[in-house]
Amino acid sequence: MKNHEFQELVDQNLSGLVWDERKRQKVLHAISEEEKPVKKISTTFILVAAILCISVTALAAGLIFSPRYDAVRIANQTMEEKYGITADLLSLFYREVKENGDGTSTVTFSIPDTASFPTDRIGEYSVTVSGNKGTASWSKDGMNTSGGLSAEAYGTEQLQLLSYDYAGTMGKLRDMGIMPSPTENSVKPNPRLTSGDIEWTEEDQAEADRALAEAKAEDDERLAKIAKAESEGSLTMERASAMGKDAVIQEYRLTEEQTNKLNYEPDSTYISYQNDQPLAHMLFWLWQNDGDTFTEKDGQYWVTINLKTEVIEDIIYDAGLAGNG
User: Fold this and answer.
1) Angstrom distance (rounded) from CA 109 to CA 107
2) In whole angstroms, what is the distance from residue 229 CA to residue 77 CA?
3) Residue 69 in 3-state DSSP?
4) DSSP class of residue 233?
5) In this structure, what DSSP letter does residue 14 have?
6) Tens digit of pLDDT for each residue in 225-278?
């Protein structure tokens, strides 16, 4: 059994565990009894050690994830294990989850044709999830990924280039004739804004006032929808945002330092409905340095929580790379 499979198994079985000082002392006493020069480690010691190692995960805020997200988690792990595509690189893709009638789920990772990427060489990935196991395939399986940007299929190496040096990589692709040159912008610049001498008129002020009024009306409507969803559910947004933060910390294994820098943006929260169930979509941002340098796990995390059932329906991570920030 692999390490992550063992952790998932114990997490599931210990999800209702309540931990207190009395039980902690009991476990420590059991460990001290085992600290004797023996040739064989007992089953008791192994179980105690396992509980101590993963009890934090098992007890993390009593979080409950939807079967849909469970499938996503397994698909993400499978993509990394088979193709080396980590969470930051998955940000390039659009993810779609389909729950099949036989109890399995199919998670696809693709890039829309409208995006400015060499989609024909990147292809599409599909992961079939059955239980705790994922089986992945790639539309470019068997094709050669060596040769840098000249490769017939773009794997991890090329995805890294697109993610971390998008402008430079796209420039090379245009020079190589793999990507077309950008079309000339048909929108002509306003001469008033390019002359260097701008005079603010009454018409300008009226237009600005109108835009501000529309923005305020939209935000008032957003807040009203949030209040309505709270009244229909069992969670306040304060509690939901705390759960959302815990979910990100747990799922992406953030350190204490990263946790302290993970920020919730309430102004971005919005409500949607699915089968009459109010879903809160919340944005969390992590940026670990003062400059523009990307650090692993930086980016935005969108968490969706059902305010009635308190189930975490989905988490989407976007590293904000490849000009997507």
Assistant:
1) 7
2) 33
3) helix
4) S
5) T
6) 999 999 999 999 999 999 999 999 999 999 999 999 999 999 999 999 999 999
The single residue listed with the structure tokens 């993963």 is 54
The tokens for 274 are: 């699915």
**78 confidence band (pLDDT: 50, 70, 90):** very high
Tokens representing 80?
A: 């990394």
Tokens 């006493």 belong to residue: 29
Pair of tokens at residue 290: 């003062």
Q: For residue 107, which of 78, 65, 143 has the smallest C-alpha distance? A: 78
d(CA 126, CA 86): 15
Q: What is the pTM of this model?
A: 0.77
Residue 24: its pLDDT value, please?
46
Spatial separation of the C-alpha atoms in residues 161 and 80, rounded to whole Å: 17
Whole-number Å distance between alpha carbons of 68 and 77: 15
Instruction: Confirm if 317 and 72 have CB atoms less than 8 A apart.
Output: no
By CB atoms closer than 10 A (0-12, 13-18, 19+), residue 104 is middle
Among 313, 306, 154, residue whose Cα is nearest residue 233: 306
Q: Bridge-partner residues for 94, per DSSP?
A: 110
Taking CA atoms, 33 is separated from 40, 42, 283, 309, 325, in Å, by 14, 11, 48, 43, 54
Q: What share of the chain is helix, strand, coil (3-state, %, to 5)?
A: 45, 20, 35
Map residue 21 onto helix, strand or coil.
Answer: helix
